[in-house]
Amino acid sequence: MIEIIKSEKEIQDFFKVLKNRGCVSSGNYLDIVKRIIEDIQIRKDEALSEYTKKFDDINFDINKIEVSKEEQKKAFDSLDSKMKEVLLKAKDRIYDYHTHQKRETFTYEGVYGERLGQKITPLETVGVYVPGGKAAYPSSVLMNVMPAKVANVGNIIMVSPAPKGYINPLVLAAAYVCEVDHFYKIGGAQAIAALAYGTESIPKVDKIVGPGNIFVTLAKKEVFGTVGIDSIAGPSEILVIGDSTTNVKYCAADLLGQAEHDQLASSILLITDYNKAKEIQKQVLEYYETSSRKNILDVSLNEYSKIIVTESVEKSIEYANMIAPEHLELAMDDANNYIEKIKNAGAIFIGHYSPEALGDYMAGPNHVLPTVGTSRFFSPLGVDDFIKKSSLIQFTKESANMLISDVDTFAMAEGLEMHALSARVRGEE
């Protein structure tokens, strides 16, 4: 069960465990992935069909690879009215939030009369990978597709494995709600390779987003450079900062909510009140007894989760910035006073009534977040992931002449004579 620790040595030893938690051991998987990618490049649909039959569905028919809009609509229509309402509401909230991220092309006049600026262009084609089978997440469809919609991506292609021909109806319904352009029944490294290089059935994309297993993750790493990717996701995590005002039941539920994701998930509470820490530990145990996912919780709570008693909220924030968590909850009455001090976090949940679960489904901000410390330099998935930026540079003869001698000097200092010449000849006219 989740342990309470206080000493600096215990804390630092635990941080070392956390640091290694996200390390992906590729082992023999990488060789397999490379072979699959090379095979798809050469044999295209023929290889794609063979791998899909081998790993997902022996009856797979390459001629029926695409999921029709009718099939998607049928899945949506089969849902009860409450689930339909929730899907549509979540879609609208996610879309609305991401509209605030949208960038516009801009230009301005420089000091010499030149025009400078930046052109915003949406990506033409994006591939969205969605894990398949019974453990499928329609929320991931919404979170990956809606910012692409806001960015005005021209062609959104969704892929998902269909083991024994089965696709989760909620995933089909989410695809229908999001109005993806094409949906193909393929998964694994072979799907990533098909999206990256194209086959007779699958068009080549500009970028691939979405989570997957180790084969998908390694395949994304391998094709990066040929196409863009979102990020390499690690196991999920939550860090809660609390004090004497932290609600025991809320906090315990939030810690368990993250720990149940998988055995590598991490749930950490940094709290200044030892007695409150003991109460929360007891409540975690009570809720744990009601869980159907004890086999997962046993590992994540024992190995990668801790309640850490600190000397002050400031010390808790210092530790939090060091860990750089995916999800950070400020579970205190005066939570707003500490927001500016948080330097590293994928998403910040403020106060007692902003649980991480709201962010997973209905809040609006994206739940695709940087994990295992990468919030030091990565941001949540958003509209910027689906656009590209081009610099705009326009000089007149007169404005160019104001800088040509400077270019001449700079280029010659770098030993690039023709660079200097290309500027100088314009000044000699």
How are the SSEs placed, and which strands pair?
Blueprint: E1 3-5, H1 8-21, H2 29-43, H3 45-55, H4 69-78, H5 81-99, E2 106-109, E3 115-122, E4 125-129, H6 138-150, E5 155-159, H7 169-178, E6 182-184, H8 188-197, E7 207-209, H9 214-223, E8 228-229, E9 237-242, H10 248-259, E10 266-271, H11 274-288, H12 294-303, E11 306-309, H13 313-323, E12 327-331, E13 347-350, H14 356-361, E14 387-394, H15 397-401, H16 404-413, H17 417-427
Parallel strand pairs: 1-11, 4-5, 4-7, 5-6, 7-8, 9-10, 9-12, 10-11, 12-13
Antiparallel strand pairs: 2-3, 3-14
Helix pairs in contact: 2-3, 2-8, 2-9, 3-8, 4-7, 5-6, 6-7, 8-9, 10-11, 16-17
* Shape call: globular
What is the beta-strand fraction?
15-25%
Low-confidence stretches: none
Strand order of the largest sheet: 1-11-10-9-12-13
Mean pLDDT: 95
Largest β sheet strand count, sense and barrel closure: 6 strands, parallel
Kindly state the percentage of residues in helix. Answer: 40-55%
* Broad structural category: alpha/beta
What oligomeric state best describes the polypeptide chains here?
single chain
